[in-house]
Write a structure and sequence with these properties.
Structural class: alpha/beta
Largest sheet: 6 strands, mixed
Number of helices: 7
CATH architecture: 3-Layer(aba) Sandwich
Number of strands: 6
Low-confidence stretches: none
CATH class: Alpha Beta
Oligomer: single chain
Amino acid sequence: MSKKSKKPSATKAELLLESSTFYVDDCLGKTVAVKLRESGWKIEWHRDHFQRDKVQDTEIYEYIGNLGWHFLTKDKALRRKPIEIDRMLECGIRVFSLAGNDMNSEEMADCFVRNRLAIGRLLKNHSEAFVAYIRKDSATIPQQVIERMESAKRRIADAKK
């Protein structure tokens, strides 16, 4: 009879996190990218791929979507940009946006790290594109975004017919 390992096995959410690449938006800054890398996240920072203010957001979404990466941002007005949310969903990206602008770079990085497992659970439970909001102690997809996701899925399916 073989001995059982005393090391706990990783959950599916943890495995998804380990295999995922996260694109850090320029608005979060290099400090956030560095801190997340130091915490074991696979990170791609905006300026490693694009010059500052030289690319349209829609081009970034296509780029991220084509590579299968996830998007970290802090766009506080994102909720009021339905066309932009639709474009993110059409590009197939999963977005994690910090809610609240009262954090410095260290606090923003800590917020993502603190919510790591909640982010992993969202990745595990939602295989399609989404926009989630990260708060200091939670990660959620608001109902109005879920409705937009459903609407975007129907539009994409209709366009393929």
